[in-house]
């Protein structure tokens, strides 16, 4: 019998991060505007079958402890939706529950159907989403949109389901969480046709062209670009260029702010620059989580300063501007 292969999964203790230098003295609290909490916990249980955290609440309390995670926006986007959504949302209704179960975290959520799942969109799925829209912890509709990279659903169906969801969300006055990938022309056309100019829009995990971002930011004054750890990846140049062009506006207005909101898209998109902070660690973390946000902010600040040639942004300023924008976008 051959030898058993050694597990490549790092020890669970490595999920507990060191403090980012910007947070040693406190600083702006973390608001993660896009995380998939159930998927993150499922990934954790899959990698750590004997893990110490038995429930999603245990995981959040312990992994986020001491990192200043003030609020998260959890995302449901399957078809059909996760049946546990209401139980989890109800667990955050009272301040006492949020303190006891969530460690004081402000839990919010959005719900919609991802373009990958558009082919499974039904009246019953829609009824579930409409029910969720009236929940006190629901702050938006999404993620929804178009994905022409994978084409997991036919493009015509993606467009039809996207428009159907937009009409409901606009009618209800709900902020929009948008997924778009390699579908700039159709996403722009549909949004401009069906969404009022002053509606609140979050373009989640931005990776498309800086030119498209500029057009959308100009047309929709309450639109924000979502920045995840993907900005740190060498395979993605577009997101950094979007930040450089935003920073260029400070040449004429030193107080110009970045129209971004920080997000993890957990359990995906672990920031690549986080590994320099992990001592005696080799390999890759199996999942991301909300306490990683400051590393994305640090990278964003460095990119912004490249354009202006001076350290006008730092991690704390990016965190602060993103936090203010999260409040404007989702009211959290």
From TrEMBL:
GO molecular function: hydrolase activity, acting on ester bonds; metal ion binding
Disordered: region residues: 1-25
Source organism, top-level taxon: Eukaryota
The UniProt record lists the keyword Hydrolase: yes
Entry keyword set: Hydrolase, Metal-binding
Entry keyword Hydrolase: yes
Name of the protein: Metallo-dependent hydrolase
